[in-house]
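Note on ligand handling. Small-molecule inputs were canonicalized before submission; formal charges were left as drawn, and no protonation-state enumeration was performed. Where a ligand contained multiple stereocentres, the stereochemistry in the source SMILES was retained. For zinc ion, this procedure yielded the string shown in the input block below.
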Amino acid sequence: MLRFKNLGSGSTGNASVIEAQCGHQTTRILIDCGLGLKELERRLIQANLELSDLDALFITHEHADHVGHTKRVASSLKIPVWMSQGTWLACGGLDWGFNPSQINIARDTEVIEFGALQIKPFTVPHDAREPLQVRLSDGAVSLGVLTDLGHVSPHVFSQLQGCNALLMETNHDTQMLRKSGYPQFLKDRISGPLGHLSNESACELAQKLNHSGLGHVVAAHLSERNNSPEIVLDCLSRALGRTVDEVWVAAPDTGSAWVHVN
Ligand SMILES: [Zn+2]
Ligand SMILES: [Zn+2]
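Structure output:
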């Protein structure tokens, strides 16, 4: 059994809990830790979980909305943390003041077997030192988690083929971003090849990844100023040939509901 719940998504802080069950073994990993300890606890309670139910953290990259509270959360829970060597170094390495025995280095396409979960990180094009996103499986079905990338590289596409559910970035509407009051350098960064995925690119990817075994698709990391859930639901449902009720958007403050992957 594999299920997931986004706890909050966007530039104010990202975190998603993924749970796998195999026999009597249950394993839960938190992907990204952009929420403070108290807020994380509050949102876990809303998901009928406690902080002590988390078995590990996986940090995708060093941007504050993802790595933000990692040290505090991991130190207080005394659980292992996976991240790339580049992310670890970008956070300060040994100077980060983190117990190094808790850090595990994740590498592109090297599967991490952790309890009932198999975690396969893969490199994405984003303006961080060594960003990784992940494909997670309970051995039967798989979930693709994909945020913070400027474009869909052939590598990204190949790593997500055949997934049974997707939690994927639909960051901005290209027209809204172009017309926004953001300074030009910021517009260029967001829409650039190492920035964030536009609705159009995300929908094109969703269409290419669509297959009869693809269940829930949850849109994530929406720009609060240059996008809207309505636009995303419309474009994603059309790309997947579904109704707007059959695709979901993760909200910044409440995330998503629990999603069963089957
Ligand atoms: Zn981000
Ligand atoms: Zn980022």
